[in-house]
Amino acid sequence: MSVDESLTPVGDEEWLSRYILQKSHVRHDKTLRPDPFIPHPYADLSVTRHLGLGDKELWGIGEDVAGQIGKSLYGRAENQVKTFERHHLAVVSAPVEGNPNHANVTRWPADKPSQKIIAMEIAAESSYVERT
């Protein structure tokens, strides 16, 4: 993928991955808790666009992210952009070194209780892909 492609506007049908870096974020039935979708204390939530990437490349980016912060990679939460948009959030391309497909989910309410309500709904709409 070229850098120009990563800067294209994010379409509402695009798939996104949110890397799961804490085992406690996944219930025993393999559904996701809301915690990985709460941006607090940050203003935005980091995600990776699938844009031209295969499964191997998506896992590679996740391993890099986990390695940078000294955590283990347990899996990925998968959502389409329109899942976030239904909650009046926006997804904007934000390439970073090592991940030209990085994007931010923006327009979160400022208070954590409101963020948690939205995160609960997004978690319920997510698919979990376990790292094998």
Automatic annotation (TrEMBL):
It comes from Geoalkalibacter halelectricus. This is Uncharacterized protein.
